[in-house]
Design a protein that fits this description.
Shape: elongated
Number of helices: 2
Oligomer: single chain
Mean pLDDT: 83
Radius of gyration: 24 Å
Low-confidence stretches: none
Distance between the termini: 85 Å
Helix content: 10-25%
């Protein structure tokens, strides 16, 4: 049994369909890009991980809680060791004992949005 050769119109239809599928996939990927919503209690700071779980937050020695979660710019979880020696702008939330429990590494666009910073007298820390 022989397979008939494709006609020019069939090739054109396949090419048009493939282009349409690629274009629709591209537009659907752009719709997945979402802006992150941060909790109202989150504060802004500059973070540098020194020796995990110890960090420098806004120039002061601080500590990550044992279950701290660090979200990267793509909102995936990062290990604190991946940030050793890097100074990054972050939003963060503290536990009741004062340790950092939730940290979001910010993109340039997110860092440009104004957000309150910590009032040093507001938190009790063991590192003063």
């Amino acid at each position: 049994m022989t397979i008939p050769a494709p006609t020019p119109s069939a090739i054109k239809n396949v090419a048009t369909s493939a282009a349409f599928i690629c274009a629709s996939a591209l537009f659907s990927l752009n719709s997945w890009a979402q802006t992150r919503e941060f909790p109202a209690a989150a504060l802004r700071g500059s973070l540098e991980v020194t020796v995990p779980p110890q960090v420098v937050l806004d120039g002061k020695l601080d500590q990550l809680s044992p279950g701290a979660r660090i979200h990267g710019t793509n909102n995936m979880l990062l290990l604190s060791g991946a940030l050793v020696g890097q100074k990054v702008k972050v939003n963060y939330i503290r536990e009741i004992n004062g340790a950092l429990s939730e940290v979001w590494v910010l993109t340039e666009a997110e860092a440009a949005v104004k957000r309150p910073t910590a009032n040093p007298s507001r938190f009790f820390t063991f590192f003063d």
